[in-house]
Amino acid sequence: MELISFDELIAKREQREKDRLKVCNIPIPGTDKYLIAKMPTDSKMLDLFGKFAKSYNDREMGDLLRMSDEAIYVCCEQLQDKRLRESLGVSDPLDVVPALFTVPERNEMSTSILQFLGLLNADDNEEDDAIENPAKN
Questions:
Q1: pTM value?
Q2: What pLDDT shows up at residue 124?
Q3: CA-derived radius of gyration, the chain
Q4: For 60, 111, 114, 123, which has the most beta carbons within 10 A of its beta carbon?
């Protein structure tokens, strides 16, 4: 291990800024469709990380699924449309995901979103293929 240089620190900062632009396609199970997920703010990431850690450590699968629903909602702007909430008849924005998808579908989608957010490690690189960084293009 060696001391990081000034230039490497600056490069790290530039990479962090680029990482904020990452997007991920979240496949909708049973279809050939997907939602586009974007990285949330740092404060939202910290909130999600805390909820993930607590539900994971407590082995509370219901809480983990609700946290995943929140992550899907927060990261996918398509789900945040007020007209969609009205059409679904839900008042709480976090009820959008459960109103649209079954528990098994939400569970499958949660794996993709949690890997994208870095809260779960991918077992293989297939999920990484869905992640794009437009700043690199």
A1: 0.79
A2: 41
A3: 17
A4: 114
